[in-house]
Amino acid sequence: MPQSTSRAGRTAASVASPLPSTAATGARNWRDYALLFALACCWSSTYPLAKLALPTIPPITFISARSLIAAAFLFAILWMRGISLPTDVKAWKLFATQQLINSTFPFLIITWSQQYVPASNTVVLASTTPIFAFLITSLITRHEPATLLKLAGAILGLAGTIVIIGLDALRGFGSEIIAEIAILLATISFACATIFGLRLSDYDPMVVAAGSLLFGGLVLLPPSLIIDQPWTLQPTPTAIVATIVMGIVSSALGLMLFYMCLGRLGTLTTNAQGYLRIPIGVGLSVLLLGESVPSNLALGLLLVMAGVAAMTVSAERLKWR
């Protein structure tokens, strides 16, 4: 649940302490996993909504607009709750860093790479985030137990992703090596963001989301004005609605749920939602875009669910050393 106003107002000095480890080992209940599923649902809408918006709204303007819409939505709720954002510089440095590695940098990199890498290959490469999170956690930060069971879950989830989008997705890897490496760098950035985000656990998740999204929207606004010249664009009503919905659902609610899951479930379990997003995203694409149902959906879903189950098992005593 969101923290109290007094906790939201703490200085960044308390947040910058070593990464907390209790989230990964504490008792969990069905509400925690419901939050994880809700997060997967929010972020699964990203692909079909972006597909509806990007034909008439360029990427930089699209990302900036959805971030500012999300920030305005969250600021309105915070105002109604009587909660204000921190005013100290250190807190905003944390917000800015988190937004850069969790959104601005990886989204721009992936958007650029998709000009050269097929969508199916992009999905597979982007699904390596849980594996990178596992490696960083087990070899560098060691802030929570990184068990072999969680590694097996990450590999099963990746295998399920490949099965769902089709084995043909493996064809053509290496033909655009620079763009593919760029996507992997973006996924490493996502993995680092889930770990760095633990430093913000003393803030209300809505405060962190609002501050991060405001920074992300403002930092891309000048490039949007210079490069895209938004006043010359002619977005369709569908694109406008998709941008607004994506700002509120995917960005505002999704990012808030992301920080709640980090505090409750830890880094590795929170990353498991990345695999849940694949079948949910496929379902939304079928409903919203009329895309066909993948022939291997059942087998892929089975592998994904097995992987997610392995990654969400609380195995406090089974540490990978």
UniProtKB/TrEMBL annotation:
The keyword Transmembrane helix applies. InterPro entries: AA-Vitamin_Transporters (IPR050638), EamA_dom (IPR000620), EmrE-like (IPR037185). The keyword Amino-acid biosynthesis does not apply. It is a multi-pass membrane protein. It is found in: Membrane. GO terms for cellular component: membrane. Keywords: Membrane, Transmembrane, Transmembrane helix. Residues 34-165, 178-311 form the EamA domain. SUPFAM superfamilies: Multidrug resistance efflux transporter EmrE. It holds the Pfam family EamA. The chain crosses the membrane at residues 33-50, 56-79, 100-117, 123-141, 148-165, 177-200, 207-227, 239-262, 274-290, 296-315. This is EamA domain-containing protein.
